[in-house]
Specification:
The complex is a heterodimer of chains A (576) and B (151). Chain A is 26% helix and 18% strand. Chain A has helices at 14-26, 43-54, 71-74, 85-90, 138-142, 152-166, 172-175, 196-205, 254-261, 314-323, 397-406, 413-422, 463-484, 555-575, and strands at 4-10, 31-34, 97-98, 209-210, 213-214, 217-219, 266-269, 272-279, 285-292, 301-311, 343-350, 363-367, 382-387, 425-432, 441-448, 454-459, 487-488, 496-497, 502-503, 506-507, 538-540. In chain A, strand 15 and strand 16 form a beta hairpin. Chain B has helices spanning 3-15, 18-23, 25-45, 47-61, 71-78, 81-84, 95-106, 127-130, and strands at residues 108-110, 116-118. The radius of gyration of chain B is 17 Å and the shape is globular. Classes of the chains: A alpha+beta (576), B mainly alpha (151). At the A-B interface, helix 2, helix 11 and helix 12 of A face helix 1, helix 5, helix 7, strand 2 and helix 8 of B.
């Protein structure tokens, strides 16, 4: 194996895969992708992952199909992070560490991610709304948060490219002009057909005024095929989106990894956990150090050199690598800070007639109307999704049956009761926006993993801005259920948690902000193109560069920014 | 009454899946292999409690004339300590009875720590046809089928 490359890409998720692929198309660059995980990306691997779930009992968790991977030991992730703070701190095996005490973490950081070849798109739902224009101008328009150093108009053509690369299905008329965000091109595929359940819900609420806003039920743009696209089949409605589409109808970064690896100039090295970067006296990064856990000497630090290095290891491992690199790229002090997630919650109810959930994708329809407005100066907006998966995270069909047995409904009464209750399960979820706060951060823990690499240590507080959005979302969900004549379930979780004194919330596992983008090198890590302010040949791709979190799922915006950054890298390399 | 017959009858009694497990001769035969494996796995997970519940059922169902497998028999079974499985706090956990229901409806069940155990026949869980869906991860229908009301 050679050790000198034109470009070293750290991470093989959607940002790393798109970076490697795009650069391989733009030039004759020798590209190395370093990936901490180790798994195949063939169809056979997909089938193996699918059948792993058959024997597990938990088919819905994001890590279920990947439980047998050896990489879990050497490239650990927080697989049990969807817990409150106290149990996470009490768990000595937890990958996540926390600051404690008066100035310590107020909330758990619940978001997890995959350290696998193909990254977290192995586990994502596939929802792909764009940011809206005001998401890029939060400070200018609402005097909170920050402004991005680019605006929607500048990113719009890259959104179009990303949609074609990933294969996004959607309905143009529903999203062209949404909150001022025009679309210059149609979607590559028309939207996923609304389900029978979605149409039943739509009949009752579409066009109605709810808490001062007129509601429109639309089809969520999704990285899920509605026709044969890019050699991948249309969705067959397996209802398994998270964690795994059995037939590859949902985009996974492995699509672009396979394409990148078709080039003889692109090499993928797996089981390679990066430990640090080093720089020359001129301030350019030159070496990437890593440990190969598949080798005979897993603790030996090896190195490769690159003319350009692209960090694309997601928003926890990317800043962690920089923090382990002796202050590299951190003159601003912002590396690891401005940590954000999409804090969300759901309300569950029983619909007045059967909806027949668990048929088709887990969520097809959304309500985009609450994402923007003058209220954003005081509290977060939110994006709502209508579930097609019963009671989502709050309760499964097994929960219903358990409840029926507790009512004594064994025997002849049971099948009819099951058919009645489960078919009328519905959930509304609402996903809010966090502000970039420097106090929300990851640092290096004194605790290490099995390779002796520091774990991430969190200080996290969801903040009053997001909490305000959660409260309004909760009331809006209640109001919508009232309009539908649906009955909020007694099993619904309350928003306030008297035991913790905090609010209950779920993570969307959308980790953002930890190497924030900005024009000012004193308060940002990367410039408007994704290049580190301090290091001329270090670039960062992925959601760690997000300036604001907005309320849109981040992957499409990651893809758009990554394609744009790759073009900038190419321009730089051509100019040198 | 042999072990397998007792388990199938007990399962029908608890789950309400009389037609599938007893009345329909074809379904009865098709479900025999599932019953054998489910009994094996349940017995392995709850070695004493499973046998105790089975024995309690055999005692009730073994009288002459044989009682109908109906709600009257269910009521008697529910009054047995083997069904109730009362814990140290006086709470009736109904441990094995609940997991027999789970294994037939989901082909999955839980041990006493809450750990999920595979039943071995995920696609054959009874819940999916009952709610007019499909086992999650195993659709056999074309794109867009979900737009129509199931028949």
């Amino acid at each position: 194996m050679q050790d000198q490359y034109d470009v070293i890409v750290i991470g093989s998720g959607v940002a790393g895969a798109l970076t490697a692929w795009k650069l391989s198309q733009l030039g004759d660059y020798k590209i190395l992708i370093l990936e901490a995980g180790k798994n195949s990306i063939t169809n056979g691997q997909r089938l193996q992952f699918h059948h792993t779930m058959d024997t597990q009992g938990h088919r819905g968790t994001m890590f279920a199909p990947y439980a047998a991977l050896e990489s879990r030991k050497f490239a650990p992730a927080a697989e049990n992070s969807q817990r409150d703070l106290a149990p996470q701190i009490a768990d000595a095996k937890n990958y996540y560490d926390y600051t404690v005490g008066a100035n310590g973490s107020k909330d758990a950081f619940k978001a997890g991610y995959n350290r696998m070849v193909g990254g977290s798109t192995w586990s994502w739902r596939g929802n792909c709304p764009r940011f809206i224009p005001s998401d890029f101008r939060l400070f200018s328009e609402f005097a909170v948060g920050r402004d991005w150093p680019l605006d929607y108009n500048e990113l719009e053509p890259w959104y179009c490219q990303a949609e074609w690369e990933m294969g996004i299905s959607g309905n143009h008329d529903e999203f062209d002009g949404l909150h001022g965000g025009y679309r210059s091109e149609p979607f590559p595929m028309s939207g996923i057909p609304l389900g029978y359940s979605d149409n039943k819900v739509k009949e009752r609420i579409d066009g109605k005024i709810v808490r001062g806003t007129r509601v429109k039920v639309v089809t969520t743009p999704q990285a899920r095929n509605t026709t044969l696209f890019d050699g991948r089949p249309p969705c067959e409605g397996h209802s398994n989106c998270i964690p795994l589409c059995p037939i590859d109808a949902k985009y996974v970064a492995t699509v672009h990894l396979r394409r990148a690896l078709e080039s003889p100039n692109v090499e993928l090295r797996t089981a390679s956990v990066v430990t640090r970067l080093s720089k020359t006296n001129s301030g350019r990064v030159n070496k990437v150090y890593f440990k190969d856990w598949s080798s005979d000497n897993i603790n030996k630090e090896r190195s490769v050199t690159g003319k350009v290095v692209v960090l694309a290891a997601h928003a926890i491992e990317t800043p962690k690598i920089l923090l382990m690199s002796n202050g590299l790229a951190n003159s601003s002090g912002q590396v690891g800070r401005n940590l954000m997630d999409h804090v969300q919650f759901e309300l569950i109810a029983t619909f007045p007639e059967p909806l027949y959930p668990f048929r088709g994708p887990q969520s097809i329809a959304s309500i985009e109307d609450f994402r923007d407005g003058g209220f954003r100066s005081q509290r977060s907006g939110f994006r709502m999704t209508i579930g097609n998966d019963g009671w989502g995270r709050t309760g499964s069909p097994a929960t219903v049956i358990d409840g029926l047995l507790s009512e004594g409904k064994y025997g002849a009464a049971l099948p009819g009761a099951i058919a009645d209750r489960i078919t009328r399960m519905i959930r509304l979820s609402f996903s809010t926006e966090m502000l970039p706060e420097t106090a929300n951060r990851i640092e290096l823990s004194g605790k290490t993993d099995d390779l002796g690499i520091p774990r991430p240590k969190f200080t996290f507080d969801i903040g009053s801005y997001a909490e305000g959005g959660l409260r309004e979302g909760f009331e809006t969900a209640k109001a919508l259920f009232t309009k539908m004549n649906a009955t909020v379930s007694p099993k619904a979780k309350p928003l306030d948690n008297p035991q913790t004194g905090r609010v209950n919330w779920n993570t969307a596992a959308h980790i953002m902000g930890t190497t924030i983008m900005g024009d000012d090198p004193t308060d940002s890590v990367v410039d408007r193109w994704g290049k580190a302010h301090d290091v001329p040949n270090l670039w960062i791709a992925g959601s760690s560069i997000f300036t604001t979190s907005a309320t849109a799922n981040p992957t499409l915006t990651i893809a758009a920014l990554t394609l744009r950054t790759a073009a900038a890298i190419h321009r730089q390399m051509q100019g040198e | 009454m042999d072990y397998e017959t007792a388990f199938v009858e007990l399962s029908a009694l608890l789950t309400g899946l009389q037609d599938r497990l007893l009345n329909d001769p074809e379904d009865h035969e098709l479900n025999k292999p599932f019953a054998k494996e489910y009994a094996r796995r349940l017995h392995g997970t709850f070695p004493d409690k499973f046998q105790a519940l089975l024995d309690a059922y055999k005692t009730l169902a073994g009288v002459n004339p044989k009682p109908a497998i109906d709600d009257a028999l269910l009521t008697k079974l529910r009054n047995t300590p083997e069904f109730k499985d009362i814990d140290a706090n006086g709470v009736a956990k109904e441990t094995v009875a609940r997991q027999i229901v789970n294994v037939w409806y989901f082909s999955q069940f839980m041990d006493e720590s809450g750990e999920s155990i595979d039943g071995g026949f995920y696609e054959s869980g009874a819940v999916w046809s009952l709610i007019k869906a499909h086992p999650i991860g195993f659709s056999s229908q074309p794109h867009g089928y979900w737009a129509a009301k199931p028949e």
